[in-house]
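User: Some background: our group keeps a shared notebook of sequences we're curious about, and every so often someone picks one and asks for a predicted structure to add to the entry. Today it's my turn. The entry only has the sequence so far, pasted here. Could you supply the structure so I can complete it?
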Amino acid sequence: MTRQTFKTTDVLKLEVEQTPTGLVNQIRNPPDPDYFWTFPATGIVAGSGFGWTTDVGVVNGIDVGTPAGRTDQWLRWAMTNGVPNAFYSENWAHSAGEYAAARIQAAVFNGVTAWYRLAIEWINSAGAVFSTSATSTVTQGTRVDTTGGVTVSLGAQLAPAGTVRARLRVDLFATAGGGNTAGGTIYWKDATAAKASTSAALSGLPVISPVPTWVNVIGPTHTISVNRSALNLGILTAEILDASIDPSQSTLVRPGKRCRLMALNNATGLWSPLFRGKISRGETSYDPTRTDAKRARVTLTAVDAAAELSQINRTLGVTDPKWLWKPLEGSGVPSRISTVSYPYTAYTTPSRSLLDQIAMIRDSTLGYAWVDRKGVLNVWRKVDMPSTPLTTLSESKYSALSVDYDTDRCINVVNVKLRRTNAANGTEVEVPYGPYVDQASIDQWGAHSADFTVVGITDSDAAAAAYAAPILTANATPAVRINAVEIPIRDTTDVTTLKAFLDVMDLVTVANTNAGISQAMVITALEHKINDGKWQLNLSFTVNNSVAAPQAVSTSGVISSAQGDANWTALPFAAGWADYGGGFQPCQYMKRNGFLYIRGLVKRTGANVAALTPICTLPAGFRPQASLAYAVSASPTGVGEAGHAVFVDSAGNVSISTATMNTNGYAYMGLPPIALD
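Assistant: Of course. Here's the predicted structure to add to the notebook entry:
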């Protein structure tokens, strides 16, 4: 076997973010070249990883584009016509008594009119905005294609008592005097926000690059390992014999600092990441027999963006990857979503980590999600995944190949766990469906089950069966499979995208003439093992077009429900009653696991009626053993709301306690579960 012909230190850099001096840009974009310039303009959502967020009710996200007449890329946002428009930077740590100042380069295009105003919002320890600074002069954005925009600046602002964080707010107006805009797309770049202990230090704030200063800590004596796989936590571990970076003596190795392993691409001559994340731990062991730099063995551990995604909780949920840009806003994790759609559709969910929500959406759509070597979250529909292999890995490229056949490696029993949320009270119920089976596969190979937790599919057995069908088709039969290869990086010519830079979810062909194998395989996991004189890349695979392995999702705050006796059914209204309409929840009932559920908004369409006039009569089997009453909000006249009671009696009559219910009066019917046994 040919030995490695180069020193790893010639083509690798292990870089740690240096503690900055002077003014630092607290806004990562636009643009942060460390992430930004590695992407094409399509399929990228800036709001989730490019330093900006929007209000919950805003339907359009912030993304990246190249305006007509220019060659550079700008952040852009489609304003909503006739409503207040504002967007915000991700917040930064800020103390009371510190000053902050900001600036952006603001622009419009093709007849759009927008006036920009900047302010700093002060955030307290509860995470709430409790105060806002003075504002900048309202400045009209100029055409991006002819003038390159105009600078809008906000002078130094003093943070009040109670401040722990801050963010930049950008308001948009129709005129210098205010007013809601008529919509249209606006552009901005070169956003800078800085903080200092004095206002003088922020005078004449310049554009400050958001990119940190990096320090290469790799030494002549080192070992490095990188382990990454889809949505699992990616970990870099480095052992370096160098007393100068001993965390007991140096501030360089500190938890939370950004860290990246860079390699010199032989094909382009540019440095590109093999891993990007943040330091999670630094430790040192000492050799008391030595007095030189090698007396300290420093172990640095870093984790990728999956760690941040697991620690950020959201109560705003979505059911489709194309809307993920909204809950990802403000996470600080850059993302690339294969298909993005505005406006989004969301629901309120019990607090759930972003990682859990991404895993559920991936499994619900049988798509793919992973953190790549650049530290970017990718969420792709199956139809958008590459169909042409990036390269062929033949005997000349690898030193070892693992091929096997395992009768246990199949899925022939699928259990579907549907998560759905009660819009009235925000509780989440997990409804099991299945099992769905491939009996012929079970007869031959034994039962091998997998559980898939999903959102967004129809709450019915037919829909769950349709979801399970392609999983069974793709996985019911074991097959001879290539599991892994070991690839030595022997020469600098191997340090290219077709070898050393191969990444999780890349599609490659793995071939072996002696075994008569040539299969298109998807990389599901990788490991870099690197020391002074050896670099080896180990790849693990799954068959192309297979289903991503389901991921366990937290059940915190979720109510379990047995599979129901029936699905939601429209209430059998008595004469003069109907659904309220207008997009509100229709009135429906359902029985599950011995409990009756009723939901919806009912309206009186007939003449005025007295209290306790039946709204409907539930059928036998859906009636409680005794009369029950539940507090609801209602409007007997259709104007104003007050507390009333909904009664459900043992004869199945559902009624409301208002003295009278007039034409156009209404009542909310979102009742808690009613025991029937």
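Suggested note for the entry: The CA atoms of residues 115 and 140 lie 4 Å apart. Confidence is low (pLDDT under 50) at residues 36-49, 562-566.
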